[in-house]
């Protein structure tokens, strides 16, 4: 009887312990693999491919073919422009930039002989990761829109193509670089205020610190025809920095002053530094003949080399 009583007490004690609210000691987790497999090294993550330090004109020309050959006229307020903006934003994001849109209103007017309604357009802005707009930086831009009647290969898929090729290049720039594709550069009337809507909006949205931080802006507009690269300023002062860059790049060039017919003028008229590459006359200007075949990849390469020399100067 004594033995039975002892056994019963042991069982009751065990049951009491099992019903306790106090947590017991943690149990070791069951192994998910054998010792041999757990000692195997973790698979390595491949590093991103290094960016080339030289300009790729093939990428630039492919953009010309896509924009002017597949999409065609890109009036700043219509569906084809939004399609082009989406495509270009995707290319910039794929290149590793932080991409944002800046939307703005555009009034009704006349686009090279065609009456157009009011609407909305947008700038596509690509900033390097970790970019601080209050710290010194450079801006390189090109307008994405066309007049209503033109596929816009030279004016201005050529400039956009150079910007997209730069996005995939190891810029080795002296300062951080913001890439901007402007909407609604093309005129809707005869005056300054009927032109350059996207770049004027971009400048207007800069706060005081960001304005002081812009150390240079370069507009690429009509850069794919000819054999000589035009480099221009909006004032009577010569574009000395671009002349030096062209010389370093070994590119034949011509310097122009008083050039105000592109987006750099929006910066200069607001007291910021701005220059332009491009403006060679050509037969397809603002008409249906502005097709990809007019654009010369070798000229795109010359322009790309000048831009890199300016960024690295």
UniProtKB/TrEMBL annotation:
Pfam families reported for this sequence: Peptidase_M28 (PF04389)
Keyword Signal in annotation:
yes
Keyword check for Ubl conjugation, yes or no: no
Region listing for Disordered, in residue ranges: 20-54
Ranges of compositional bias, category Low complexity:
30-42
Spell out the InterPro entries in the cross-references: M28_fam, Peptidase_M28
- Keywords from the UniProt entry: Signal
Signal peptide positions (record): 1-16
The record places domain Peptidase M28 at: 123-310
Q: Which SUPFAM superfamilies match?
A: Zn-dependent exopeptidases (SSF53187)
Protein name in the entry: Peptidase M28 domain-containing protein
Look up and give the organism this protein is from.
Nocardioides humi
Lineage, highest ranks first: Bacteria, Bacillati, Actinomycetota, Actinomycetes, Propionibacteriales
């Amino acid at each position: 009887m004594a033995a039975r009583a002892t056994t019963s007490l042991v069982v009751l004690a065990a049951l009491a312990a099992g019903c306790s609210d106090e947590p017991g000691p943690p149990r070791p987790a069951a192994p998910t693999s054998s010792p041999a497999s757990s000692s195997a090294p973790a698979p390595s993550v491949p590093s991103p491919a290094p960016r080339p330090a030289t300009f790729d004109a093939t990428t630039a020309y492919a953009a010309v073919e896509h924009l002017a050959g597949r999409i065609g006229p890109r009036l700043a307020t219509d569906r084809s422009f939004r399609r082009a903006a989406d495509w270009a934003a995707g290319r910039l994001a794929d290149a590793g930039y932080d991409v944002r849109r800046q939307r703005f209103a555009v009034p009704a007017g006349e686009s090279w002989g065609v009456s157009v309604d009011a609407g909305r357009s947008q700038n596509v802005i690509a900033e390097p990761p970790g970019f601080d707009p209050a710290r010194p930086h450079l801006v390189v831009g090109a307008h994405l829109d066309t007049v209503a009647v033109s596929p816009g290969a030279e004016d201005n898929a050529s400039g956009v193509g150079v910007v997209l090729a730069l996005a995939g290049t190891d810029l080795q720039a002296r300062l951080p670089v913001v890439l901007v594709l402007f909407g609604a550069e093309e005129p809707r009337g005869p005056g300054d205020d009927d032109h350059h809507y996207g770049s004027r909006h971009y400048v207007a949205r800069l706060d005081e610190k960001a304005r002081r931080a812009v150390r240079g802006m370069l507009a690429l507009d009509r850069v794919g025809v000819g054999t000589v690269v035009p480099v221009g300023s909006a004032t009577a002062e010569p574009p000395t920095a671009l002349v030096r860059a062209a010389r370093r790049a070994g590119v034949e060039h011509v310097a122009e002053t008083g050039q105000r017919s592109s987006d750099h003028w929006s910066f200069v008229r607001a007291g910021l530094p701005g220059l332009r590459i491009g403006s060679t006359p050509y037969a397809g200007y603002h008409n249906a003949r502005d097709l990809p075949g007019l654009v010369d990849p070798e000229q795109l390469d010359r322009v790309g080399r000048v831009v890199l020399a300016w960024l690295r100067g």
